[in-house]
Every structure is written in structure tokens, then in C-alpha cells.
């Protein structure tokens, strides 16, 4: 099996995780769907660049991260994104959280700076280790730890201020 076939077959089971990551990065369902499409197109077009000894999920997530940054630059966006209620779907189980709580969490996540939202998406949503996230983001582990600590503090402050 060549690299292109391996990538094509490996992308299918990665789709749910890729979609969760895209929603966490983009904050909006439509933007996340567009991002997933861009990532799939790039991964398939560049399948020959993937090394079979490398983890496919990390390679695809790096493509997603870079594609989202390209999109933000193209739009001229800053750190402020607005999230619709649907963005809460990726952050909490609908059966266990009330819609108002989902919206509140989605708004808190959307208010995070993009670099903090990336770390939350990779470590807390996707379950990567700090080391794996650091490798993917090309930053030291201490940077991941610091960003995650600041993101958690910001989320706690935002979510706890009305309590």
C-alpha cells in the first residue's frame, strides 16, 4: 500500500476527531465545516508527503492548524470570534448540559485567544499529551502548560463570574 492509499484510508476514522478540532479552532459550525473540507483536500493532495512512520492524526491536525491560521490571515481577523449556540456541541454532552450552559461555554471558548483555544482543543478535547501538543504546535512543553493554565483560568473566570 502506498502513502496515498494509506492516507485516504486513514482519514475516514479521523473525521470525527478532525471535526471536533475544527469546531474548537473555528468556533462556528460553518467555518469548522469549511476547515474540514480544506484539510481533507490538502491532505489528499499532499498524501505523498506523509511519512508512514509518522502519526497520521498529528500530520492531519498540523494541516488543520495551519489551514485555520491561513484562513484567519486571509480574513484579517483578530482574536475576537463570535460563536453561535451550536458551537457548544463540541464542548459538552448535550444530554448532561443545559442549552444555556452550552452557549455560555461556547462563548467562553470563543473569547480565548487563538493560541489558547488551540491548546484547549488539542489537550482537553482531543486528549493529546502536553508533549504531543507541543510537538504539533512546534513550541516547548512549558509553553503548552502555560497556555493551558491561562486558558483554564480565563474559562473559570468567565464561567464563574455569573455564579
Automatic annotation (TrEMBL):
Domain spans labelled RNA polymerase sigma factor 70 region 4 type: 103-155
CDD domains: Sigma70_r4 (cd06171)
Any one GO MF annotation of this record: sigma factor activity
Residue ranges of every copy of the PhyR sigma2 domain listed in the record: 13-63
UniProtKB keywords: Sigma factor, Transcription, Transcription regulation
GO BP field: DNA-templated transcription initiation
Keyword field contains Manganese: no
Similarity field: Belongs to the sigma-70 factor family. ECF subfamily.
This protein's name: RNA polymerase sigma factor, sigma-70 family
